[in-house]
Predict the 3D structure of the following.
Amino acid sequence: MSAQGIGARVARKEDKRFITGAGQYTDDVYERQMSAAVFVRSPHAHAKITSVDTSAALEMPGVIDVILGQDIQDAGIGNLICGWGIQSKDGTPMKMAPYNVMDPAVVRYVGQPVAMVIAETRAEAVDAAEAVVVEYEEQPALTDFGNYAAGPVVHPGTADDNLICDWQLGDEAATDAAFAGAAHVVEMDIRNNRLIPNAMEPRSAVAHYNRAEDHTTLWTTSQNPHVARLVMSAFYNVAPEHKLRVIAPDVGGGFGSKIYIYPEEIAACYAAKRVGRPVKWTADRTEAFMTDAHGRDHITKAKMAFDADHRIVGFKVDTIANLGAYMSLFSSATPTYLYATLLSGQYNIANIYANVKLVYSHTTPVDAYRGAGRPEATYVVERMMETAARQFGLSPVELRRKNFIKDFPHQTPVLMNYDPSDFHGLMDTALKTIDFDGYPARKAESERRGMLRGIGFSSYIEACGIAPSQAVGSLGAGVGLWESAEIRVNPVGTVEVLTGTHSHGQSHETTFAQIVSDRFGVPIDNVSILHGDTDKVQFGMGTYGSRSGPVGGSAIYKALDKVEAKAKALAAHLMEADAGDIEIENGELKVAGTDKKLAWHEVCLAAYTAHNLPEGMEPGLKETSFYDPSNFTFPAGTFICEVEVDPGTGVTRIVNFVAVDDFGIIINPMVVEGQVHGGLAQGIGQALLEGCVYDDEGQLLTASYMDYAMPRADDLPSFGLDHLEIRNPSNPLGVKGCGEAGAIGAPPAVINAITDAIGTNALEMPATPERVWRAIQSTQTAMAAE
Amino acid sequence: MADVKLTVNGRKIAKTVPDRTLLVTLLRDEIGLTGTHVGCDTSQCGACTVHIDGNAVKSCTVLAAQVSGAEVVTIEGLAKGDTLHPMQEAFRTHHGLQCGFCTPGMIMMGVDIVNRHPEGLDEETIRKELEGNICRCTGYHNIVKAIGAAAEEMSSGTTQMAAE
């Protein structure tokens, strides 16, 4: 390896432009003659549109056009789709209702677009949007999705009981039998609160139509520009793929919310063609709150069966998952195959059965948000383990240890086949890092100050690196989930890597360059990473599910194998040696056991001059790989959270937070730690602060930073991190993925800590001071009554 | 329409803009300084923070006309040529940024925090002072470290200058 290779803590190459204001985000794209788009949006959660009058708006200063849903339908631009087909337990397919770009007749959530105003400037478009007169006939709305069957109906004719799919996984009869013979059964009602992703860069689109070439260029805030192009071409009829270029330049965070293809960018492409000028649309923050796909929102009943020795013998989970008003792109997979498949956690559980009911409601569509299904699974499993330990009078550490999986590979009853990790080792390290032995003294010290101190655990496992194409195909995915890489070595020895993944904070420009540096000894400054442009990169599935390292990185690795083989063959020819004797060291190709050597750039140049190539070798040094993983990857870890609760106010302060993870081989520890920090902040945010609130009429009450509690710097502690590096055998880099772990593991650690402090198991997220205070009062009332 | 004359990053600017034009709109749309970002519409995220006459101000909350005559520094004007400001350098060294969107505002605010605390900064103070800047990527851990490190660097720089 080189000094900047795999494992090196090097500063990021991409930082220079971001710290000097030279980043290029979609809203920073300014085209000549560019116009501005603003959407008229529904103020109602459910209403019939009886009329739209655009005449006043069209007379306003600067207005170019007003586009209605019917215009888009008439242009043949099709409905949005959910790209993962699942079936109910009776074999019937999920009930996917039509999802118009702008439904001309009915609105089904607050913020649904109704009309698009195009004007010279954004301010003029905003003014004119207010002058569009829409008459609505209001209808009652469904927000209480736990009572989905009671109505009102979101999509009559498609799902008259609002049930999209009644899905199951596992063996129900065997699980019931395990419960029948169990010594203990622990039951819980668990709610996973609805979240709004809030990437700091609002979604944006700039569409440019070239009439002479009949070609559209779309700059957009996407985590997966090729998927956007594919879907817009194959399903939405925006333009054929070779006439559509999608560029996702610098993207300011995604967290899942920028995977999906939304109505606005489709409308922008249509508008650019119609008005004959480039069109820019950028969401304001309230639009982001109303229209970015939301996350989580589960209601669950869970029960776990134990034998007399407190070993888990069965686990049964019933979940209702709210998908909102329409099925977003991967909405069916998130609460099913990304959720129930992780219900075995880190534990040896022979029998698991999960039933998930996916339902419609009159709310914003819900889809994958950082962790996607796995935080929901971890929350159920880890709340259950802590609660069971309390009921048994065991230490939560002991109960977990008693049930940890020790032998790998381990096949769970819910599809997953775990690769090796060390769950006991992760727990050991976490206990040491937090100084668990010192906890009683810290607790006593808190109590002396009149504060309640609690400690909570979370031992999570997740499935990343999504995923083997054949496996996901058999489960209903509409796409394959391989990744591609192209390595272009220039004649001077510098290297360009084109990847189908997309970096919107993940540091690919640095870590992928480290993979190249590790192989050839070239400095990372001599390696460029290109991504996010369908005209440059051959193809790719994008970035989500912590897949960029395990899948995208492995594609780079495989392409490097091919470059290395060719470079060695050429070097061997030039030095009259055998290719098998060539070694690459410190940027030189050497004949082993001799002093013969060529510099890396000399070999690269020779490939391009082509004056002296081996028989049959083509000139140039450029290789491609399409890598399809053989399995998911399974990062795992133990988090321990220590809180101090003020019993007078219910205010919780996190005083100590430790995360010990196994991410496999680590390419850049600094980057990995940063990913964990960010994930933890989102997980702690879910546990303490964040909650999306709709009222009974479907009004979104948390649609600004005044109302939705984002984690601020003084809500969070500094974190204590450590790692075990257990190589993943299923990909050549040995990596497992680190992007989502923090958000997956943190919420149960926090809630377990608070409930430990206040002495009750019942506490909903977010654990606001009011909720914690009320929980303390109810415990004291219960104690007084005893 | 309003006639606005101001200095931005040392350059004299004269523009005639609609009265309601915000400073951030002037910077981005009229002057082409797109390093200043807009992340919300309630003046809470801080991505648009710039310096007006040496003080950190959210440029989405100020009319361009209000700052006529003022001296504005944006993220593009913080480095001296190729020499980065210690706050920029610290954000890079300490991995205080990921997607980069909140970063310009964080850096401009970071400089302001250090300037307002000549007595030095502890972690708690930095965290409290950052209440008007939201980051979704970093969990603030490394931003807090970066500002702390830059504060030390900036104060040693000041000492050095004073000694010269």
Summary: Chain A touches chain B through 59 residues (CB under 8 Å). The two ends of chain A are 67 Å apart (CA to CA).
